[in-house]
Design brief:
- Residues 418-556 form the Thiamine pyrophosphate enzyme TPP-binding domain.
- This protein is of the alpha/beta class.
- Strands 3-2-4-5-7-6 form a 6-stranded parallel beta sheet, sandwiched between helices.
- Strand 18 (529-533), helix 24 and strand 19 (553-558) form a beta-alpha-beta unit.
């Protein structure tokens, strides 16, 4: 009987030749072949069965309440791992919800792939009114690094492989992969299907910089009187941590990290010039950009921020995209290649006699840094009632200082601005914030993505306005029992809660929320832990309890409703505010 059972379980060659598979299985097989094990998304027609199958085949599917948040989770997973994060959505409206996250990933150079079900081409092209009909491929193209559509099951392997390579090679970014409903149900011979899959080899190959470019860069640094190294999030993404640290310490040059590069070297490192940011940007005569772009976050390399009166600066720019060079100002020494290879080449070119910056420059930076740190310390030592941004962030800072492994998500106007300068980071790729666009609403998506990817504690420091964009994902956090502690800085409104209706009408001002809102009760509705904190001491205790428990937690941190300024530190970008100053 046993022997018969074995024979029954084995297929004959003829039976194996007749075996088939379908598009659903091929998509999952293609992802798994390329070591992708997690999908973030929201199910519905026509991709519900794809999500079920992914879970059945051992992949992790994290279901969200809104596709934009799922896309943000996929993007931050890509940033942390250098593998494309996967976001799966339904067609048309679901795709459009995910498109914001895709565009943000492309802008920030995060590798992610947005996979969406779609209507059939022949119906879309004739505009015959299919269910959720939309030309999604062409809608995605302006906001993605690349966009592909797969029409035949035998091409799924190629489509997935091209999407992966496009997402991570060169300058990373968002990729759109369009899968019409009819494709998923297509059947194909199982043997041919297996042969059609592609294991991507060397998806992001090293790009070695030219020797003459390295020499030119070293000459600029060597001849500078007041050199500065500026680290962008691209430097953190590169995971060339040891090489970058060696360059900074061997050169002796002060460095300034952009917000998501904080922790690449500890913020307490003696060469960190974060506390003297305005001074070093204005006074440096040579700036080495590593994984940073001279966009609006750096005043485009021009104007008062860069001390126009102090004379022209020379820039060394390390970037994998040659088209980025000279995008705002002339770059004296472009070094094109991957960051790890470029930094290694610079270090190798520094001989034992490579000059360190002058003591005059280093002392000037240290003096300004110490002065500003003393001013900040005096501000942080105050204990006003009710709490303000500084006293609340002091409490958070002191807790996080003891746990450098914790992932920190941060968004808001004032909440982002103050936290960026008050909370030190000690390890790379532990800080995630609004990034290049300054976009609000990344909070819960980034928090979930970071928690799922790392398996470690996340603390999300949120302005009450920013939290509102993704707050429903508290249910997702509770559903998956993720170690996420969300701290909502509640001052009753956008920027502050004290504005009044200038017309004297019954409606509140455009920036004002419900007074005394209890955000902590929201998470309790989903089975999480809520805390109300009105003092730094209460905030400290609640945060310590949350970290110790590892449970989904929300702390409603009540702060002075008059605390906060219009648009944080970006008031100059508000046209009316700028006009009123003239």
């Amino acid at each position: 009987m046993a022997e018969a059972g074995i024979n029954d379980a084995q297929n004959s060659p003829a039976q194996e030749a007749q075996a088939t598979t379908d598009g659903f299985h091929l998509v999952i097989d293609a992802l798994k072949l390329n070591d992708i094990d997690t999908i973030f998304g929201l199910v519905g027609i026509p991709i519900t069965d794809l999500a079920r199958l992914a879970q059945a085949e051992g992949m992790r599917f994290i279901g969200f309440r809104h596709e934009q948040n799922a896309g943000n989770a996929a993007a931050v997973a890509g940033y942390m791992t250098k593998k494309p994060g996967i976001c799966l959505t339904v067609s048309a409206p679901g795709f459009l919800n995910g498109l914001t996250a895709l565009a943000n990933a492309t802008t920030n150079c995060f590798p992610m792939i947005l996979i969406s079900g779609s209507s059939e081409r022949e119906i879309v092209d004739l505009q015959q009114g299919d269910y959720e009909e939309m030309d999604q491929l062409n809608a995605a193209k302006p906001y993605a690094k690349a966009a592909y559509r797969v029409l035949h099951a035998e091409d799924i392997g190629v489509g997935v492989a091209r999407a992966i390579r496009a997402a991570v090679s060169g300058r990373p970014g968002g990729v759109y992969l369009d899968l019409p409903a009819k494709l998923l149900a297509q059947t194909i011979d199982a043997v041919k299907a297996k042969q059609s899959l592609i294991k991507v080899v060397d998806a992001a190959p090293r790009q070695i910089p030219a020797p003459d470019a390295v020499k030119r860069a070293l000459d600029v640094i060597r001849n500078a009187k007041r050199p500065l190294i500026l680290l962008g999030k691209g430097a953190a993404y590169a995971q060339a941590d040891a090489q970058i640290r060696e360059l900074v310490e061997k050169s002796g040059v002060p460095y300034l990290p952009m917000s998501m590069a904080k922790g690449l070297l500890p913020d307490t490192h003696e060469q960190s010039a974060s506390a003297a940011r305005s001074f070093v940007l204005a006074e440096a005569d040579a700036v080495v950009l590593i994984g940073a772009r001279l966009n609006w976050l750096l005043a485009h390399g021009k104007g008062k921020t860069w001390g126009a009166a102090a004379g022209p600066k020379q820039f060394v720019q390390i970037d994998i995209a040659p088209t980025e060079i000279d995008s705002n100002v002339a770059i004296e020494a472009p070094v094109i290649g991957d960051i790890g290879s470029c930094v290694e080449a610079l270090v190798a070119g520094m001989g034992a006699d490579f000059p360190k910056p002058s003591s005059e420059w280093l002392n000037a930076v240290a003096e300004r840094k110490n002065t500003n740190l003393a001013k900040m310390a005096a501000t942080l030592d105050k204990n006003p009632t009710p709490m303000n941004f500084h006293s609340a962030l002091r409490a958070i800072r002191d807790v996080l200082k003891t746990r450098p492994d914790i992932n920190v998500v941060n968004e808001g106007a004032n909440t982002l601005d103050y936290a960026r300068s008050i909370i030190d980071m000690y390890q790379p790729r532990k800080r995630f914030d609004s990034g290049t666009w300054g976009i609000m609403g990344i909070g819960m998506g980034f928090a979930i993505g970071a928690a799922v990817t790392s398996g470690t504690q996340v603390v999300a420091i949120e302005g009450d306005s920013a939290f509102g964009f993704s707050g429903m994902e508290l249910e997702t956090i509770c559903r998956y029992n993720l170690p996420v502690c969300t701290i909502v800085f509640n001052n009753n409104g956008v920027y502050r809660g004290t504005d009044v209706n200038p017309n004297g009408g019954a409606d509140v001002a455009p920036t004002v929320f419900v007074k005394g809102a209890r955000y902590d009760k929201m998470i309790e509705a989903f089975g999480g832990v809520g805390h109300q904190a009105t003092t730094p001491e209460e905030l400290t205790k609640a945060l310590l309890d949350a970290i110790a428990s590892g449970k989904p937690t929300l702390i409603n941190a009540v702060i002075d409703e008059s605390a906060g300024t219009e648009s944080g530190r970006l008031t100059n970008l508000n046209p009316q505010s700028a006009a009123m100053k003239k």
